[in-house]
Write a structure and sequence with these properties.
The model has no long low-confidence stretch (mean pLDDT 78). The chain starts with a helix and ends in a 16-residue tail after the last helix. The longest helix has 38 residues, at 12-49. The chain is 69% helix and 0% strand. The protein is mainly α and 148 residues long. The radius of gyration is 32 Å and the shape is elongated. One of its GO terms (molecular function) is mechanosensitive monoatomic ion channel activity.
């Protein structure tokens, strides 16, 4: 039962999905920080009193127009840290384990035969067989001699 669980985890799809979820949620934090701390204050300032210009950034007493660039930078740094941790603690070891497994089995990714390769080989063999005539040189009457 544990061997099956290990095989389930060692398939690349599970690890790829987990990494995608973690990195996606970290990127969501960047988008949220950008929207909440840059876009919404700018929109609130522009639509607030009908005046458009740089003066809206200097309005005091209106917390809805406060542009917080530090929160966006913090979210970006957090994203980079999370991505680095995921890469170095999950992706790199899993790639190394996959290389060791392939080395132990004696195959590499380049040596694996794909379905397309097999179908191409079958097609080529059938084409050669058809070009050479019926198998074994036998004719329709079974005599083995060809009429010329």
């Amino acid at each position: 039962m544990l061997a099956g669980f290990r095989n389930f985890l060692m398939r690349g799809n599970v690890i790829d999905l987990a990494v995608g979820v973690v990195v996606g949620s970290a990127f969501t934090a960047i988008v949220t920080a950008f929207t909440d701390n840059l876009l919404e204050p700018l929109i609130a300032a522009i639509g607030g009193e009908g005046s458009i210009g740089l003066g809206f950034l200097l309005r005091k007493g209106n917390p809805e127009t406060f542009v917080n660039i530090g929160a966006v930078i913090t979210a970006a740094v957090n994203f980079l840290l999370i991505a680095a941790v995921v890469y170095f603690l999950i992706v790199v070891p899993m790639n190394k384990l996959e290389q060791l497994r392939q080395h132990r089995l004696g195959t590499t990714a380049e040596e694996e035969v794909t379905e397309a390769d097999l179908l191409t080989e079958i097609r080529d063999l059938l084409a050669e067989r058809t070009a050479a005539g019926p198998a074994g040189g036998a004719t329709a009457d079974g005599s083995g001699e060809r009429a010329e």
